[in-house]
Amino acid sequence: MQILEFDTVVIGSGLAGLSAAYHSSNFGRVAIVTKSQLDVSNSYYAQGGIAAAIAADDSPEQHAHDTLVTGRGICDTDAVDVLVREGRERVRELIDLGMQFDKENGNFVLGLEGGHTKRRILHAGGDATGKELTCFKLQLIRQKKNVEAFEFVAAVKLLQQNNRIVGVQAYDFKTNKNVIFRTKAVILATGGLSRLFARSTNPHTATGDGIALAYEAGARLADLEFIQFHPSALYIPGKEAYLISEAVRGEGAWLLNHKGERFMKDIHPLAELAPRDVVAYSIFRQIQKSGEKHIFLSLKHLDKAKIRNRFKNIDKHLREFGYDLTEDRLPISPAAHYMVGGVRTNLDAETNISGLFVCGEVASTGVMGANRLASNSLLECLVFGKRASVKAAQLQMHDYDFVDPAPIVLDQPNEQLFLQYQNELAELMSKNLGIVRNRKDLENALNRFSAIVEDFDEDLNEYNLIKIRNTALICKLIAQAALVREESRGGHIREDFQKESPDFKTHIIQQKNKNIEFEPIRK
Asked: b/e per residue, 418-442, with b = 16+ CB within 10 A?
């Protein structure tokens, strides 16, 4: 096995990983390990923008208020306070470094999205904020001589000694060789898991790898039952879901049912700009009522030139499908979009395992609650990516005195087997753990997930078989948490428990070889 040594190893190359790598470079040598290319991530495809209270009529307190309201009682208030205060400073740092957010007459153009009571969404390139931001961070990182990127290298195991991280075992798809990264700290920034569902807005890489890595290492997981479905994903039979940014509704787009009615006005005072969980569930109900597969998004009543300029990329993409953003009623339906829970951390992005830090979508820092406030995700990446790197720098390198793990191999014929299981699991997740759930469906899904885990629950050393087991394991963990939470709250709606319950105003914690626990909300 090839053995390499770095002060910090960052797994993942979205905005959280890039932020962590950038700040970690101030303290030593850094490796960025990513199973695809550096610019393939949820961050890269983020259209909406980044939320920050920089306007004269806004404040961190107001931003915190909106985050807490949207989080439905499950946000840790200390983490939210860190997010909104330090987030504003991280955004100002980016601007000082040269990041170009959109301006008009010398002032930043601030957008409005669901759940926000103020215009506070900075965007870049109109609807290409994620791309502009990750490319900007990549440019900064490429200037750092002590950061080395390892593309098409998949982390398969966190190596520990005495409940302390000492390295990472990875598989290099280019050389077909195993690599061991010796390190004092791993910062896990592997992104989300919405590709576990049949219909998702995420890139193909968002399969929850970091959840499986952390769980197998003994890390605590929190709130996996909360999955955010984006309300407005283009619906074309046989095609991938294409995200139409919430910022479109922020500029005044309407949601229409098949009768042409604006149904959201009767459901929530913010109408189309209600929090995502409310809008996604309302659309789901309209689809159920009509028997159709979608509803419609309409911008026909808005200024055409302004809309085309603001949403250049969405406009271009829709034209490829034969739709005019400013003229046509666009068929949309919700799609799995964001993992709200994740690997549990403290305010410094630390887990219960010494040397393991987590940031970005894979983390449960406490800021998202039961339902993420729009455009808080990129902000969380900046804030906790930096916090993780600063805390990790304080650790000392430990001796490496254990036997190398068994090597991982790649057996091509097993790829087809993995795809079969992946499709089965995705259909089951969409059918039984979608926007609306119930005990019978959850139990049926859990039984199947458990059976697959059992079938592959042995010392596997083939990459595709490991992926089958890990995918089924993550689905099983989500189903277990969803069964335990006997209420409807945020991104978790139960037909058989339709109201919020004060008994469940708590985090649900899962850990390997331990019973499910309940953890109080931090104040």
From this structure: beebbeebbebbbebbbbbbeeebb
> 10 and 82 in one domain?
yes
Task: Check 182, 199, 220, 276 and give the catalytic one.
Answer: 276
- Catalytic-residue membership of 276: yes
Q: Which domain holds residue 57?
A: 2-194+200-208+340-392
* Per-residue model confidence as pLDDT tens digits over 67-94: 999 999 999 999 999 999 999 999 999 9
Query: Dihedral of CA 298/304/309/314: which sign?
Result: positive
pLDDT at site 98? 95
Q: Are 20 and 388 spatial neighbours (Cβ–Cβ below 8 Å)?
A: yes
CA–CA separation, 37 vs 81, rounded Å? 34
- The tokens describing 417, both together, are 């087997």
| pLDDT for res 404 | 82
Instruction: Report pLDDT for 389.
Output: 98
Q: Longest C-alpha distance within the chain, in Å?
A: 69
pLDDT score at 114: 83
Residue owning tokens 């042995």: 458
The structure's pTM equals 0.94
- Residue 318's CB is within 10 A of a number of other CB atoms, namely 19
Task: Give pLDDT, residue 283.
Answer: 97
For 495, phi then psi, to 5°, come to: -65, -35
Kindly state whether residues 139 and 51 are assigned to the same domain: yes
Give yes or no for residue 402 having a pLDDT over 70: no
Which three-class secondary structure state does DSSP give residue 142? helix
Strand ranges for 397-481 from DSSP E: 436-437
Residues 365 and 356: their CA atoms lie apart, in Å, by 14
Q: Average pLDDT of 376-392?
A: 97
**pLDDT (tens digit per residue) in 447-463:** 999 999 999 988 789 99
* 370 assigned to some structural domain: yes
Q: What's the domain count of the chain?
A: 3
Q: If we measure between CA atoms, which residue out of 9, 12, 11, 18 comes closest to residue 134?
A: 18
3-class secondary structure, 310: helix
